[in-house]
């Protein structure tokens, strides 16, 4: 018996075990081998097993000068990023978006929440780039009026298994220079559960939320760096299962800053706060024990001298820590760069054409949007 015949005649559970260990792009090609493999790969059980084994990749959204966005997925190695993307798709073309910029709200288990920015309304989508499935979320009948700010978060209830999109909206007066809120006349929070046709009103909305960042999801909660009306910075936490806000301990004691340049992320299984307030250094705080204030540690102090030194006006996001001590970071909307631990220097990373970018860590998966949404509402690009 040939090697090919031997592989074809293996028991189904062994074939599934082998195929589920392969990268998602390779699995897509395996669907073309035979009907048996296509059937095995198309089951929810395979999707669950593959997701458990799948390694995160870097997703880079690039906004093209002529309009539209393209998303490229790059694999990691032990010391950096592969130069060629393993996957690419035209976001605007694929989702039939004709105008406006589109950005990423968040990604969980291979599902990506996307936001198309509008003057009066936002359009929201949930898609899986690997399965090419997507769904338009229902419009929320709340028109934007200036000055106003809206921010989003994408989360998963660890108890019910339901995916939820959270929208926080503020209307009032803010400082045109810093964006800090001076007064808030209208404040709303709405939650959409994937698979339903409506948004629910959550009335308790503490403090002012910046539209410059989305809420990273970790440990069942969404997190935002926020400001009270006096300009003191805090962290707000939203429990996705209970749909309620609660305070969360920051590493700093309610400090006030002229420029709010603190970003939150999840790195190496911990909540991470990146502080770009200083003109000369970037400080990375890591919460070693979730929810415990004393476990915040100033893990890294990265010098910006000479190439990145000077007044800072943009947030820096930490994306990944490598075993050799290198750190992958992104400067808001502009570029990717490495902190090289051995030389203690910053190095810019080329990830395609030099367009405005947004980044995310993405776990390729075969989780189907149809598992949560009526099939007739799911589109395929």
From TrEMBL:
<dbReference type="InterPro" id="IPR036047">
    <property type="entry name" value="F-box-like_dom_sf"/>
</dbReference>
<dbReference type="Pfam" id="PF08268">
    <property type="entry name" value="FBA_3"/>
</dbReference>
<protein>
    <submittedName>
        <fullName>F-box At3g07870-like</fullName>
    </submittedName>
</protein>
<dbReference type="Pfam" id="PF00646">
    <property type="entry name" value="F-box"/>
</dbReference>
<dbReference type="InterPro" id="IPR050796">
    <property type="entry name" value="SCF_F-box_component"/>
</dbReference>
<dbReference type="InterPro" id="IPR001810">
    <property type="entry name" value="F-box_dom"/>
</dbReference>
<dbReference type="InterPro" id="IPR013187">
    <property type="entry name" value="F-box-assoc_dom_typ3"/>
</dbReference>
<dbReference type="InterPro" id="IPR017451">
    <property type="entry name" value="F-box-assoc_interact_dom"/>
</dbReference>
<feature type="domain" description="F-box">
    <location>
        <begin position="4"/>
        <end position="55"/>
    </location>
</feature>
